[in-house]
């Protein structure tokens, strides 16, 4: 920490203000001396904790506190910028000196395109203002925004130097037509009286608050400010336990909670949002959803308007979760990519067919339209796939309750297409245990010193378990192993084994085949 004799004056309200320093954003937590050094220091908490060095303490003295143990630093006042008001930022972003434009006519930058558009229409007619990563710190002089950019409907203030909701409110209340507001990557202090800002956000329909370090109770605390809100995105925050939004957010049609570590038992706390049509729960760690108010095959009263649900990149492994989702009365679009839902044959296409068959109202799966022929094929295959189980459960119109719980749509599909014929059922071929075992020779073509290894393995064994066996035999990590096989029926051809979740049987590996083992 060096000494600078020409320090600028620090604003009286510096503590709590947002600053820019070396291209990074921070909040001022302390202003004052830090002995034994001379001069004034600012203690800042960085938005990006990796930029920091400590928790606000120096030589055993705690000057301020940080959420992150290494999220703080001391910097000289001359190193930081407190930003500019809204109108200055607009002029910096949208207006370039005309002589400069003439000098640089050959290079068409995005800023020049913005300037040309503004010249043609003027700031007064701008429908949107994009000030992403600008140094906006507040509204500026009273009433000037309303005079200068009165027709703004969409405002992007992501990653700015705004410090509190009162400042956002002071800007938005001068934009009578504002219906979309992007505030991601900000750190805003909460208003002492949220209801006092009803008028400022009265026409707001879309609000984006991604990566703002928010919890769900904090969002509910602010929610009275947004009485007409229809679309809320709060991705990548600190949202864990959800609570019922009683009396707030009741007009929401779309909600994204993606990339938050949710406590899954609390997800149903938002089930009473009666207008919610689109819910994104991707990357939230979910493994289960249950609607215990409804029996298998009937509809839940929860999420009554939900048409679109995204559960991508979660930990869903059980098909019972899909049966629970079938209870949603309005669900037509569903996405569940990158989960561990697998069919017994390990084929992803079979898993998709099961999803279509189990979710009778589905029109779009994983972004692809479900055509009538897709649905018919999936449902007929489903009937055949589980026909044997249906017969074992008693068949007819009243099979056992266990079967009904596992296959809530089965009886309605039989009603639709008729019961499966005996010859159509997918029965496992009866064979003795010794015939289930395949004699396989493992060969390492890139390692001439290793002798071939013979093993007898069940045809139903998954590739990942085969790799686990090879790890124990060869001491090579399973993740590094690449497998192919050759068959006596087609000498000279190598067939790729490209999925760890599929079985040896799936790849048609037979008794006496060779598996070639390579590693990187």
In short, what is this structure?
The chain is of the alpha/beta class and 520 residues long.
Contiguous uncertain segments of 5+ residues: 97-121, 429-434
- Shape estimate: globular
Based on secondary structure, the structural category is alpha/beta
Number of DSSP strand runs? 24
Describe what this molecule looks like in 3D.
With 520 residues, the chain is an alpha/beta fold. It folds into four domains: 18-79, Roll (SH3 type barrels), CATH 2.30.30; 84-289, Ribonuclease Inhibitor (Leucine-rich repeat, LRR (right-handed beta-alpha superhelix), Alpha-Beta Horseshoe); 290-428, Leucine-rich repeat, LRR (right-handed beta-alpha superhelix); 433-519, Phosphatidylinositol 3-kinase Catalytic Subunit, Chain A, domain 1 (Ubiquitin-like (UB roll)), CATH 3.10.20. It is 22% helix and 19% strand. It has 14 helices and 24 strands. The protein has helices at 86-94, 98-103, 110-121, 144-148, 165-172, 216-222, 319-325, 348-358, 372-385, 387-392, 401-406, 410-417, 433-436, 463-474, and strands at residues 18-21, 24-32, 41-46, 57-58, 61-62, 72-75, 84-85, 128-130, 136-138, 154-156, 180-182, 206-208, 231-233, 254-256, 278-280, 308-310, 333-335, 364-365, 368-369, 437-443, 453-458, 481-487, 490-497, 514-519. The chain has an eleven-stranded mixed sheet with strand order 8-10-11-12-13-14-15-16-17-18-19, with helices on one face. Strands 21-20-24-22-23 form a five-stranded mixed sheet. Strands 1-2-3-6 form a four-stranded antiparallel sheet, with no helix packed on it. It is globular.
